TrEMBL record:
Keywords: Signal. It comes from the Bacteria. This is Uncharacterized protein. The keyword Signal applies. Residues 1-22 form the signal peptide. Residues 190-204 have a biased composition (Polar residues). Residues 185-204 are annotated as: Disordered.
Length: 204
């Protein structure tokens, strides 16, 4: 009897070992989305405004080149700004001279400023003076051209005035000639004969 019980227990234990143990389902790990790191471009530092100065530094030369281009295209805003100044340093005086050389200014103004600017530029460093040499040369050529045109115009006006006077003199002379011709024609006409007087003389 004991043997039967022992055998039965061994069989039961063997069955337990053969039965697979149920493993609880493991949770599937959810992978978090990976975000690509975006590198923002670095903001460029704003360029510092170029300062107008009376030296031959590269920054000063570039500043004057930019300034000349600006006032050539649109000089009025700068003229308005300079009119509000109460004191004029050397830079402001140079700016005013450049504006006075603008082609839209009268001949007399540009002629007067030409000499002043020549004196100012003569004291500048060589490279800075060379920048303004173009304005002086251009304005000088423009003044010469305008002077030549003015001279030709004045000469044409004088010639036209002389022509008008000659034409008037010719008209006056023609009137006098016509009057003299009329008088001469009247003098050359034979006197009219009186027939009645001649008949009476014949009867006597």
């Amino acid at each position: 009897m004991k043997k039967v019980v022992v055998v039965a227990m061994l069989l039961w234990l063997s069955g337990c070992q053969l039965t697979p143990v149920a493993v609880p389902p493991t949770e599937t790990a959810v992978s978090e989305p990976e975000f690509e790191q975006v590198t923002l471009p670095e903001e460029a530092e704003p360029e510092a405004d170029l300062v107008l100065a009376l030296d031959d530094q590269i920054s000063s030369l570039q500043a004057w080149l930019d300034y000349k281009q600006q006032i050539l295209v649109d000089p009025e805003p700068e003229r308005a700004r300079l009119r509000e100044l109460t004191e004029f340093d050397m830079v402001a005086q140079l700016q005013l001279a450049l504006l006075s050389l603008h082609p839209d200014m009268p001949y007399v103004t540009r002629f007067r400023v030409q000499t002043q600017l020549v004196e100012m530029v003569s004291s500048f460093p060589p490279r800075l003076a060379a920048i303004f040499g173009w304005e002086l040369t251009f304005n000088q050529k423009l003044l010469e051209a305008e002077s030549a045109v003015s001279a030709v115009t004045r000469l044409n006006a004088q010639q036209q005035d002389a022509i008008d006077r000659l034409q008037k003199t010719n008209r006056d002379l023609q009137k006098k000639i016509d009057a003299l011709t009329q008088i001469e024609a009247e003098l050359n006409q034979p006197p009219a004969t009186d027939n009645s007087t001649g008949a009476n003389n014949g009867q006597g």
